[in-house]
Amino acid sequence: MNLQNASLPPRNEMVRAMLERDTAYEGVFFTAVKTTGIFCRPSCTARKPKPENVEFFAHADECLSEGYRACLRCKPLDAAAIAPDWVQKLLGAVEATPDRQWSDAQLLAEGIEPLKLRRWFKQHFGMTFHAWLRTRRLGMALGGIRQGESIDHAAFDSGYESLSGFRDAFQKSFHITPGKAADSEPLLFTRLTTPLGPMIAMAERRGLVMLEFLDRPALTRELEALQNRYGYVIAPGHNAHLRQIEDELAQYFAGKLCEFRVALHLPGSEFSRQVWAELVKIPYGQTSTYGAIAAILGKPGASRAVGLANGHNRVSIVVPCHRVIGADGSLTGYGGGQPRKAFLLRLENAALQLSQLSLPGMAREEA
Questions:
Q1: Which residues pair with 325 in a beta bridge?
Q2: Are 229 and 239 in contact (CB under 8 A)?
Q3: Domain annotation covers residue 291
Q4: pLDDT (tens digit per residue) in 9-65
Q5: Which end of the chain is more exposed for a tag (fewer CB within 10 A), N or C?
Q6: Is 321 considered catalytic here?
């Protein structure tokens, strides 16, 4: 079985959800029918195939990489960017009453299975629901302290009954004491949904710092570097840069945006920043090589170093490391996985060809 599918629910559970069109499993898995070559959402209203003719995938891009086509009825590529109704309802309740404590018993009373919720949050946020809730409350406390609120008030407002417990949790989450929070640089993060799976976006006041797929193997190491090497305090939240990248990313996947305008702030070595600056210059729908970038930088023998800097890029898609291929034309490595790299290149090529085909017609209309 594909390693990426190791976190999928048991097969018998997915078969049941598919046959019953259970909307609670939206975004948790996709069904791919071997006999038709089509993949669907679990709740697709089309006639259900025999279970023995179905294989299951965690992500839409895995279905695409195996040669399956998206169902025209349930449009699974659109659904990949939508949380199921029961999750949206819960997120709305959290937003309305941010200080509410959610026990498993309270979740069950709301008709939410805690294990299913845990699995969904781990897949889409990289942490459990309770860990996300705790980090969110601490993030609100961080914002309060930075705005001049006392540590005592921040602790009690975020649901902690003891200052010592609050201080311990705060330091464990943000790697600084509450007393130093007022002078820290907050790095706010949010989850973004895309046809290729969930991504995490992080931005500070100067610009976007990270945009990565949540299942990227190096993600944990990158987060630790941002905290330990660059002194960031990471907390859930939104700012203008995060709202902008969410909008631009949606336009990009719709084939309507060729150039990102969101501000960037890219901590790294001088050489890495030089490489990343060259990546941004690679035109939409085109590719380059490590050797070509090394030559532009005046270091023709530094292809390997360019490759390493390329791999250390934290801002996927916007800093388009997916447009760098091997000298022999091979896709080579990609932190988000080669199927995603191939998808992005196909997306750009198709959008570029479509725009070129439409130009003559547009010219005639203008004439």
A1: 289
A2: no
A3: yes
A4: 789 989 998 999 887 677 678 999 999 999 998 889 899 999 999 999 887 767 876
A5: C
A6: yes
pLDDT in tens, 240-289: 999 999 999 999 988 899 999 999 999 999 999 999 999 999 999 999 99
Which one-letter amino acid corresponds to residue 267? P
Residue 182 lies in a domain: no
Whether 285 is covered by a domain: the verdict is: yes
- Residues 73 and 125 both lie in one domain: no
In the set 63, 71, 74, 321, the catalytic residue is 321
Q: 334 near 322, Cβ under 8 Å?
A: yes
Report the pLDDT averaged over residues 111-122: 87
* 94 plus 161 within the same structural domain: yes
Same domain, 71 and 97: no
Directed axis angle between helix 163-174 and helix 129-146, to 10°? 100
Q: Which residue, 152, 171, 190, sits at the end of a domain?
A: 171
Query: Which residues make Cβ contacts (< 8 Å) with residue 148, sequence separation at least 6?
Result: 182
Q: CA–CA separation, 40 vs 104, rounded Å?
A: 31
The region of weakest confidence among 22-36, 41-55, 100-114, 174-188 is: 174-188
Which structural domain, as residue segments, surrounds residue 333? 249-350
| 300 and 344 part of one domain | yes
264: helix, strand or coil: strand
- Please report which residue ranges of the chain form alpha helices under DSSP H: 11-19, 60-65, 76-79, 85-96, 104-109, 114-125, 129-146, 151-157, 163-174, 219-228, 240-253, 270-281, 290-296, 303-311, 338-366
